[in-house]
Every structure is written in structure tokens, then in C-alpha cells.
Amino acid sequence: MEWTRETRYRAYADWSAETLLKLQAQAANSQYQLGYHIRPSSGLLNDPNGFSYFNGQWHVFYQSFPFGAAHGLKSWMHLVSDDLVHWKDLGLALAPDTKFDSHGAYSGSALPVDDKLFLMYTGNHRDQDWIRHPFQLGAWMDQAGQITKLDEPLITQPAHTTDHFRDPQVFKHRDLYYVVLGAQDKETKTGKISLFSFKDLKEFTDLGYLEFTEAEMGYMIECPNLIFVDDKPLLVFCPQGLDKDVVAYDNIYPNMYLLGEDVQLNKAKFEAGDNQIQNLDDGFDVYASQAFNTPDGKAYLISWVGLPDVSYPTDEENWASCLSQVKELSLKDGKLIQRPVVSMADLREKGISLQTAEKVNAKQQIIAESGEQYELKLTLDTDQNGTLHLAGNDDLSQSLKLEFSTGKDAYLTVSRADIGAQFATEFGTTRTILLPDQKALDLEIFIDHSLCEIFVNGGEHVITLRFFAEAGNKQIALTSPTEAALNYRGTFWKLKSI
Amino acid sequence: MEWTRETRYRAYADWSAETLLKLQAQAANSQYQLGYHIRPSSGLLNDPNGFSYFNGQWHVFYQSFPFGAAHGLKSWMHLVSDDLVHWKDLGLALAPDTKFDSHGAYSGSALPVDDKLFLMYTGNHRDQDWIRHPFQLGAWMDQAGQITKLDEPLITQPAHTTDHFRDPQVFKHRDLYYVVLGAQDKETKTGKISLFSFKDLKEFTDLGYLEFTEAEMGYMIECPNLIFVDDKPLLVFCPQGLDKDVVAYDNIYPNMYLLGEDVQLNKAKFEAGDNQIQNLDDGFDVYASQAFNTPDGKAYLISWVGLPDVSYPTDEENWASCLSQVKELSLKDGKLIQRPVVSMADLREKGISLQTAEKVNAKQQIIAESGEQYELKLTLDTDQNGTLHLAGNDDLSQSLKLEFSTGKDAYLTVSRADIGAQFATEFGTTRTILLPDQKALDLEIFIDHSLCEIFVNGGEHVITLRFFAEAGNKQIALTSPTEAALNYRGTFWKLKSI
User: Fold this and answer.
1) Which residue among A128, A248, B30, B102 is buried most deeply as judged by most CB within 10 Å?
2) Which of B14, B47, B200, B442 is catalytic?
3) How far A29 CA sits from the closest chain B CA (Å)?
4) Are A24 and B92 in contact (CB < 8 Å)?
5) Which residue from B24, B31, B91 is facing A91, i.e. has the nearest CB?
6) Please, which residues have CB within 8 angstroms of residue B196's CB and are 6 or more apart in sequence?
7) Which residue in B179, B78, B84 sits closest to B122, CA to CA?
8) What is the pLDDT of residues B215-227, one digit of tens each?
9) Are B450 and B337 in contact (CB under 8 A)?
């Protein structure tokens, strides 16, 4: 399939069911397919949308183009869960079927209001000159899952932005409703976060751009989220074209966060104090994360594991990307912590205790046959240098490499240079984080076929990446550059599918 | 949608993907949808096919018409499992896409041979006069799930049968391959089981009709299976139009079994001794069961929970039917026993112990809020009369009723007359089995939204049925016609989704 404008924007009614059934089977049969993460039933998945708690269940939707690994005509697919881990796929929820979302039902959010779930999203309409008209649209979902779209747009493009105006996040703060939106300022062509108040879910007031930094945020900000973590405001957003001198990053586009001291929404002022804008994830593939606050004040985040304008090896199988596991957010010593949710432990099969083994040829085999769905908790003692290999072949010439030093100038480098199908190599094949010197290193690693999520030192960092190993490469081992044995302890669990 | 010949046999390529996505979402969102059983991703599911163990996994396929609750153009959908309980849906596997299966890839079986899975199934072709030509077709599935159909039919319609010639079961016995097929004899228009030897999976020899009874088996036999249970041969089959004086049954068509003493395949002789043909299931909705022997000689069976020519309430939601849970077969005192597989216990949440409670107004409430996925093990003491209500409303005017006597003339009657949407009432609203007098009654009841499976006295009987209760009716209670308290003990577990 050649992805022309015509094929990307072909109506769902003009694709055949036979094609869709074959695409669904192809995705399901892929050796790289995820077992315990949200994945597309076919085609391309991107941003998580409408992440919320409603009617006694967790809800998440995802951006879908069901007909191939391309950004074509988008819809929302819907999943529900009782525990944030086991998700049930309910299929197509919001189709691009009105004049306002004729060219895509794009990203948005959800907020429970009384006995319904309010959905707010961006509908794109392209006119005959292919000029984009972004509309911020609303819909109500009832308890039976029936969705009724509002007849008219809630917000149209303001005079002060370009047509890059999208991704509404609707939220409630101190009994008032607000919406933040990603925007490009018309005059300066720079990335902004637009803020609106939304009185009684009826009357919008443009509060202007949210003031949160002096720095220029590239040419566009996508997917802004404003939530509260342990009562502190947190901005999560994706500045495109951000100058790397402002904040260093490696991926094509970064997903950033900024922790605040306070926020004054009526003044559109986000006070960050001494806090700096930082990478939300230190891996290769996280983008468009969506977060929300539960009624009891907890904060959960889920990410698209995929990037705009990046091709993945599964493109050849006509499907692409997945969502991350849900991460619970908290603060510790003023730092943002991301943790797996408690129910992730329900996926565990019987655990295997691990500890430093006899060394053979400078290699310590930890697990010979890991399978493709597992959790590995490992503590590496202080003052050590070595490499942890995941999905390794026999001689470890192929593996996902976690090189670490826990001595002075401590660091962790993840390299996917020597594992399977290579992709996006123009953005580098390694990612490095600096670690506190001379401290033991705690790793919680989740592997799901072609996805790796590493929680470092209790969630101070998360390193997320896709990798595409050859089938059968399932060894976990430690190697050290010297003959010194490496000291570790930990637990290994195979994980069940959801 | 009106189900004309044109709409039933419309090519999959001529249905739209939009229609399919909506049908999939509608099925997924149904309040009646199954949580831990195999269910259609859209449209109608019927016979289980290709139930087998291959490449380290359990495989099952099902007959699918994806476009509505009708018997239209059939294909095979594929699922795999590690434990016979948690199934992963791999989607469309065998499409009706050759001249030999142009009007449906109908039922069949699977047998692992070396590193491939051999599939054998009935392809129907209709000529321009709409005359059916049944072809027995073959295909090979490799370890990656790729299926390659054989170019030519394996068996064409024999001179001695009509075009009712289908449902091949291929199996190996004492190092030789055989195939049994459902057939209608051309001369007598009676139901037969056709037997072929299949030398080296290449050369077929028609061994004639299997001799297994003197009685006339209606006008057609569908879905024959010949397997071995504890070294005794077992026939499982569906005689259509069977005289109820031959074997009594209540459903539109029965699913029967006959246990044998011996089988001589070269003579096409199945020796039943004193054994009688019996109903495989004593409920309302089991048909087209498929069984097979594992390499280590175990016997597993799975059933279509649905019947030909019967409409179900979910027809209005454009989907229909499900598969039963897998049942392990064994013999006890010369009787066939059907048991849940061991892994079913992995679905259990924390158990709640149950025992005789104080009686209030002749009603003993066992569980007030059962939810819609649970297992209930209950032992009812001897010499008692009463009714166990499932999915009951507050005053029990609505419930699925299990009326029992454990005294003299002991029996169990299941009634769906007083629960939710009624259907197939022309075949009665109750089913009754006789029980041994003055013995305690052991029930293992599995409820999954709209499906009930009851294993009686350790699997001596299975009673399977669909029911369509009003949402919110979730009480489990016992009532007795007298003021006497009913004595029971047991355990209740909520069950997880798969």
C-alpha cells in the first residue's frame, strides 16, 4: 500500500472488511505483538486519549488508523479495565463521521460529569484547498457506552493561533472547569499552551497562553496536560522543534514535564519556582503521554510508545506502536516519581530469586530462557562496572545492552545497537542517564515481546523503548570487562498476558 | 439487515470495514458478552474447528460469519492458548477464497504432523443452479501461523452419499491415519458416519459407513468425532431428525455420544456392547462439540453453545453464540465424565465459604451481589427439596431456577422460564435430569454473563445453557416449599476475564 493523501484519507466505508480482517490477523500473529500492553487491533496506534475513571471502571481510548502503519484518517478506539492492567478492547468509539471531524477524530481527553463521561477532542476538517480547520468538539458517553456527539464545535481556532491548535485536556480545579490546548502562536510561530475556562461546561473564556517558562518552546506544543501530583501542579507536554540548548533530548520530538510550585489559572500563570523542564522518559520512544487525576487525587499517566515521523520494523506488517503500562505519579524529595501500578504484580507467575552466581568466562547467566513477557527486578551493588544483557543470543553478540557503572561518575546506558532490526538510528542507538555516585542501582525491567520499560531507582527515571530481537534470543546475562564477579540480587517473574 | 441469499453470501471484500468495525464494537459492548469464554469478535460463531495441540500451544478455530447473526459465508477464526483457559484471538485464518470453498470454509479438524498442523475441512461450492458441491479440503499451517491450502480437494462427494457430506475429523490410530465424516446416505436419506483410511496422508480409501448402531440416525449426522477415553472408543456426533423414541432429547437437534468397547477401523466397526446412545449435554444449547486426543492420550472436548435454526436475543445486537469451556473427558465406573480443566481454577478470585444460613421468610440468601462471572460449588444434603436461584432479582420473581429433590425420585430441573428475554420456547423452558435417590447433590456452576454451565455430581452430567437476564439481577438464593431449612455447603468465587 502506497500512502498517498487519497489512501490515507479514504473513508472507512470505502475500505473492505476483508482487508481489515487480514490486517487484524496479521497484527495478532506478529512475533513482535505485545502480550500485556494495549496494542492496536490493526494498523497504527498513537496518542492515548480520554484516560479517565468513570462508572466504576478505568477508561482509555487510543488514536487509531486501522488500515496500516500510517497516519491516516484517525478515530478513537476504546478499552476499559477494572485494575489499570487488564484491559478489555471495546473497539471503535469515535469515528470521523461529521463535517467537523471529517478528516480525523484527533486527540482529546475525558472527564466524568454526573452519570456521563464528557469527551473533548480535536476534529479536523480540510477544505477543498486542503487547508486544515481544527475544531474542538464535545461528546457525551453514557453508562452503556453510547456516545453522542455535540452538534456544534465547542471552540474554533482563535485569531492568535495558527491551525496548529489541538489536543484539548478538560479538567476540573477548585470546582471550575478548564481546558488546556496545544497551540502555535500565529505571530511568533512558537509553541504555546492555550488555556480556557469553561464555565458550567457551557461558556468558554480564552485566558490566553499559559505562562510557565521564559524559554521558547519550539514551533508547536502538542498534548499538554495539567494535573496535580501530591498537590503540586505538573505540566506534561510535547514541544516540537525545541532547541536542544533549552533542554537536551535525543528523540525526534521530546515529551517533557515541568513540576510547579503553584498555578493560578485565572491569571494563566504556572509558577515553576526553581524547577526545570525535564524529559519525562529517558528512553527512545515515549511521546504524547496523557495523565489525569482520580477523584481521590491520585495521578496516573499512560504514554504512546511511538513517535511521529519515525518508521518501525512492524510497519512492514502493517501495524505500529503500543501504549505504555500505566504509571502512577508521586513526588519524593521534590522529584517526580513514576511507578508501576500495584496491580501489575497480578501478572506475575511464580518468582525466581536471583543472586550472584559463579562466573563462567566473564559471563554470569541470570536466566537462560526468559521467554518474551517478564519482569526482572535487579539490584546491582555499588562500585561495579558491567553490562546487563536482555534478549541475548548464545554468545551475547546480539542483545539489548544495559551498561552500568555504580562507582564514581555513575551512569546507565541502554543500547539497542546490537539487537535485531535497526530503526530510527539517525537519533542514536544509545540513551544514557547519570546516576548518583557509589550507590547500588535498582532496576525494575518489564519486557513485553518488543517493548522494554525500565524503572530506575524506584521510578526516578523511566527508560522506555521498542526493540525487535530475532526470535529465540532469550538469554539474560551479566558481563564484566574485568574478571571481577558482579554482585547482584533480585527476582525474575514471567508475566501473564492480559 | 435482511438476510437474503445475496447478503449471506456477499464476498468479504464487498463488506465495508466501517460496518465490520461497528459490528465488532457492538459485540464487545454488549451486556451479554462473555468474559471468560471464546466469543465471536463480531457476527455469528458456530462449530469449534481444528481443536488441537501444536507447537507447544492449544489451538482452536471457530466457524464465523463476521457480518451478523446469520449463517452466511463461513470462515475459520483462530485462537491459541497455553492452558486451555486463557485464549488469544488471532483472527481470520481460513477465508472462503478458492473455487472449492467459494461458498464457505466449513467445519473441520486439525492434526499435528511433524512441524506443521494439518487442517482438513469442508469447502462448499455452489454452482449456478445453487447446487452444493461439498469438497473435503486440506491445508498446512506452519509454526508462524501461515496457512497454505492444498490445490486440489482431498475427497469429493462419494456416489453413495448426497451433498450432505461434511465435517471431516482426521485422526491417527495405531500409526495409521483415518477420517470420519458426517453424511446422508443417498438411497435411504438417513444419517451416517463415513469412514476413510488416509494412507501416509496421501491415499484415501473409502471404508464405507461406520457401523455403530442398528437404529436409524435421523436424516443426517453432523460433526462426528471418534476419540479414545481411557482407551475406550468414544463417538460424539449430531444426528439431525433423530426419532425421539430412539433417544429422547429436547433441543431442536441433539448432540449425542456413544461409548464403545472396541473399534475395528479396517472393518468400519464400532462395538458399543451394552452402551446406549446418550445426550452429551442435558441443557438447552450444546451442539457440534469437537473432541480430540492429546499426544499423552488425554481427551478434551469443546462445544458450540448455540443451535442451528434457533434465534437468540443477541441477534438484535448482530452477534450470536459462544464456545463452551473446555471439558476433560474420562471414564468412571464405565460412565463418561466431563470435567472443567484444572487451569479453570486460575480464574478464581478469593473464595467465599458458604454454609447453611439462618432462614428468612423461607429464603436463604447465599450471595447478594454475585456479579456476572463466577463459579459456585455447592453441595446440597440428602432428603431435601428446594430451588436454587441464580441471577435473581430482589423478590426472586426473576431468576434462573434449579429445582431439586435429593430424596426419593431425586431430580434436578433447570428452568429459564422466569428469567429475562425468552427464546426457543417451542423447545421447552425446562430441562430435567434424574439423580440417584437419597444422595447429596454436588453442583459446580459457572456463570459468564449470559452463559451457564453446570457440572452435576462430579461431571456425570453437564447442563449448558444461555440465558439473558435483566441487568442488575445478581442474587443467588435458596428457597424451599416448606419452612424447613435447606442444608448446604460450598464455595463462591468471582472469576476473572480471560
Assistant:
1) B30
2) B47
3) 6
4) yes
5) B24
6) B155, B178, B179, B180, B181, B204, B205, B206, B207
7) B179
8) 999 999 999 999 9
9) no
Nearest to B25 among A24, A88, A92 (CB): A92
Q: How do residues B412-466 score in pLDDT, each as one tens digit?
A: 999 999 999 999 999 999 999 999 999 999 999 999 999 999 999 999 999 999 9
User: Which residue in A has a C-alpha nearest to residue B34's C-alpha?
Assistant: A88
DSSP B428-451: -SEEEEE--TT--EEEEEEEETTE
Helices (H), A10-92: 17-29
Identify the DSSP state of B19. H
Q: Which pLDDT score, from 0 to 100, does residue B482 have?
A: 83
Look at residue B1 and tell me whether its pLDDT is greater than 90: no
Closest CA to A406 of A379, A432, A377, A438: A438
pLDDT at B360: 67
Q: Which CATH number fits domain A5-343: 1.20.1250.20, 3.40.50.2000, 3.40.1390.10, 2.115.10.20?
A: 2.115.10.20
- Nine cell digits for residue A191: 509553541
By residue count, chain A amounts to 498
The 10s digit of each residue's pLDDT in B340-397 is 999 999 999 999 999 987 766 778 999 999 999 999 999 999 999 999 999 999 999 9
What is the average pLDDT across A82-100? 98
Residues A497, B88: C-beta atoms closer than 8 Å: yes
Residue from the list B17, B29, B90 with its beta carbon closest to the beta carbon of A28: B90
pLDDT averaged over chain B?
A: 97
pLDDT interval class at B332 (50, 70, 90): very high
The answer to whether residue A483 scores a pLDDT higher than 80 is no
Task: Say yes or no: ipTM exceeds 0.90.
Answer: yes
Q: Does the pLDDT value for residue A358 go beyond 80?
A: no
Q: What is the pLDDT of residues B342-354, one digit of tens each?
A: 999 999 999 999 9
Q: Are B265 and B195 in contact (CB under 8 A)?
A: yes
Beta bridge partners of A239: A221
What pLDDT, on the 0 to 100 scale, is given for residue A346?
Answer: 96
Q: Kindly list the residues of chain A whose beta carbon comes within 8 Å of any beta carbon in chain B.
A: 11-22, 24-25, 28-29, 31, 66-67, 78, 86, 88-93, 95, 144-145, 496-497
Instruction: Please answer whether residues A347 and A61 qualify as being in contact, where contact means their C-beta atoms are separated by less than 8 angstroms.
Output: no
Domain ranges of chain A: 5-343, 348-494
Assess contact for B58 and B323: CB atoms under 8 A: no
CA distances from B43 to A86, A231, B21 (A): 25, 48, 11
Q: Which set of grid coordinates corresponds to residue B88?
A: 488469544
- Active-site residues of A, by number, are 47
Closest Cβ–Cβ partner in A28, A86, A91 for B89:
A28
Contact B18 A29 (CB under 8 A): no
Min CA distance, B138 vs chain A (Å)?
20
β-bridge mates for residue A108, sequence order? A121
Other C-beta atoms lying within 10 Å of the C-beta of residue B213: 18
Measured between alpha carbons, how far is A232 from A272 in angstroms, rounded to an integer? 10
Residue of B10, B15, B18, B347 to mutate, testing the A interface (most A Cβ within 10 Å of its Cβ)? B18
Say what percent of chain A tops pLDDT 90: 96
Query: Contact B193/B265 with Cβ under 8 angstroms?
Result: no
What distance in Å separates the CA atoms of residue B370 and residue B149, rounded to the nearest whole number?
47
Distance from CA of A67 to the nearest CA of B (A): 9
Contacts of B497 in chain A (CB under 8 A): 86, 88
Write out chain B residues lying below 8 Å of A11, CB-based.
Answer: 18
What share of chain A has pLDDT > 70, as a percent? 100
The CATH code of the domain at B348-494 is: 2.60.120.560
Compute the nearest-CA separation of A28 from chain B (Å).
5
